[in-house]
Amino acid sequence: MVALDNLDEMISLIRQAESPAAARDALCAREWSGAAVGEMLIRAGRKAAGAVYRLSVEQAQAILDLRLHRLTGLERDKIQGDFTTTLAEIADLERLLADRTVLLAKIAEELRAIQSQYAEPRRSEIVLDADDDFVAEDLIPDDPVIVTLSHAGYIKALSANEFRTQSRGGRGKLAASVKDGDFLEYIFTTTKHGVLLFFTDQGRVFARRGYQIPEGSRTARGRAIPNLLPLDAQEKVATVYATRADADTQGSLLMVTRQGTAKRIAPDQFTRIRSTGTRAINLREGDSLLAVLATQGEGEILLFTEAGRAIRFAEAEVREMGKNAAGVRTIRLQSEQDRVTAAIALEHAEQKVLVVTSDGMGKVTTAEEFRRTARGGQGVIAARKPIAGAALINGEGEDILLLSSQGIVTRIPANSIRETSRTARGVRLMRLDAGDQILAVERVPNTEEGEDH
């Protein structure tokens, strides 16, 4: 209204300004006739402050933004009409708020209008006593996944679709990227709903579903295992047991400790595990869990010790026990410093076994070379040097990884190691520097150099 009342003067001032900013400042600096504004204030029940009106910066900019067609007499009529309508709405609302009966009647009227507009029957069902068994994983598809865990403790999950089917003899794909001194110790398939049991060297077990494992690309290293499991400062994962959500839980898990104690336990003992972990075996002071083997209760167990001894006995000699049991003795160690360094579950005595000593020597022999005895004996001589580890050799397409105390990793084809007798010295598998020794022996699937990334 101020612009319409002072139209000629404002147009002249704007034309004389050097820039839009200068025009805006000039409009704000002037006092303009405000008679029309005063009349509107009086109609609204307010008191006019005077006959002149000063524009704010925002009002001056709004005037500059106006198009010429709005500076007509019709625009004045429109503004006055809008003002009159607004005053009437204000009066109606004040009257409505002042009378509770009128207010409730208005609410009822509007609700009836909404009811009439949306008269279709409800399509969704409101269930007050809904099933309390609903869990978040019901919304997660049970897709197959591949989980990898490195020796240094980095874990990740990949979709099984990352690995396409290839013709026999193909080069394969890289499953994970690892740094020097590290290697993939576990790689297994499960599903998003599948259960992974993580057994630690301190005898605890943690359970995680497949969808809880952090996902990563094929070339990613993964996440450190302490980010997934609440491990103690010196606690490490000793072994991992994977199963599908609908898998048959028949068979046993055979636990072997460094001091030669073993026990069998049914997998269904671990169906309910606290998120903070559950005791899986009661360890004696100074002992630690070495391995957990999945068996059917009808095979044989082959153990190796650091002192160079080996014992083969029937698995049935180790009875099933509960979670809090400590187990039974399987081998008589040669000294207090001696310990079990490898545990292998055998299906039959003709299977081949690789034995590696701490100085980098190794030999392949059949399991029947190690005479079967009752558990609890001192076993037979397997090597003249301390045994660092052992692995089952199943056939073609396997590699052996050797890790030294200085972080050096050597990978050799399993079929390149010739078979010998139990008493043979073996062949050189890895050359070590002075003071270095073999720490770990792992069997892994064979992959060629230059994998398909």
TrEMBL record:
<feature type="domain" description="Topo IIA-type catalytic">
    <location>
        <begin position="1"/>
        <end position="139"/>
    </location>
</feature>
<dbReference type="InterPro" id="IPR006691">
    <property type="entry name" value="GyrA/parC_rep"/>
</dbReference>
<protein>
    <submittedName>
        <fullName>DNA gyrase subunit A, C-terminal</fullName>
    </submittedName>
</protein>
<dbReference type="InterPro" id="IPR035516">
    <property type="entry name" value="Gyrase/topoIV_suA_C"/>
</dbReference>
<dbReference type="InterPro" id="IPR002205">
    <property type="entry name" value="Topo_IIA_dom_A"/>
</dbReference>
<dbReference type="GO" id="GO:0009330">
    <property type="term" value="C:DNA topoisomerase type II (double strand cut, ATP-hydrolyzing) complex"/>
</dbReference>
<dbReference type="InterPro" id="IPR013757">
    <property type="entry name" value="Topo_IIA_A_a_sf"/>
</dbReference>
<dbReference type="GO" id="GO:0005737">
    <property type="term" value="C:cytoplasm"/>
</dbReference>
<dbReference type="InterPro" id="IPR013760">
    <property type="entry name" value="Topo_IIA-like_dom_sf"/>
</dbReference>
<dbReference type="InterPro" id="IPR050220">
    <property type="entry name" value="Type_II_DNA_Topoisomerases"/>
</dbReference>
<keyword id="KW-0413">Isomerase</keyword>
<keyword id="KW-0238">DNA-binding</keyword>
<keyword id="KW-0614">Plasmid</keyword>
<dbReference type="GO" id="GO:0003677">
    <property type="term" value="F:DNA binding"/>
</dbReference>
<dbReference type="GO" id="GO:0005524">
    <property type="term" value="F:ATP binding"/>
</dbReference>
<dbReference type="GO" id="GO:0003918">
    <property type="term" value="F:DNA topoisomerase type II (double strand cut, ATP-hydrolyzing) activity"/>
</dbReference>
<keyword id="KW-0799">Topoisomerase</keyword>
<dbReference type="Pfam" id="PF03989">
    <property type="entry name" value="DNA_gyraseA_C"/>
</dbReference>
<dbReference type="GO" id="GO:0006265">
    <property type="term" value="P:DNA topological change"/>
</dbReference>
